[in-house]
Specification:
The chain is mostly helical. The chain has helices spanning 3-35, 39-67, 69-85. The longest helix has 33 residues, at 3-35. It starts with a helix and ends in a 7-residue tail after the last helix.
Length: 92
């Protein structure tokens, strides 16, 4: 891979992390008001989120290498589906 391709891949990979950090930081005033907490405590939420994201990225790479892309994608899709629609499914 040439240097331009590597730079492009790095820049594209950074976008989701920056977007997630921006969403958390935009939501801090609402968290402060909703939970009646001080700004220092609410800022820890942003720090904890970014720390967990930093730990999850290498773990997800290891899981994908260990179990395969298709199996991880299937489990992730099932988890996402049941998390989003689990309450709307009819009870048997």
């Amino acid at each position: 891979m040439n240097i331009v391709g590597l730079a492009a891949a790095t820049m594209i990979a950074v976008v989701p992390t920056v977007a997630a950090a921006t969403m958390i930081n935009v939501g801090i005033p609402g968290i402060i008001a909703g939970w009646s907490t001080d700004p220092k405590a609410a800022q820890w939420l942003s720090s904890a989120f970014l720390a967990s994201l930093t730990l999850a990225l290498p773990a997800s790479a290891w899981v994908t290498n260990r179990f395969g892309v298709r199996r991880v994608a299937a489990w992730t899709s099932a988890l996402l589906f049941f998390s989003a629609f689990g309450r709307r499914l009819p009870r048997v």
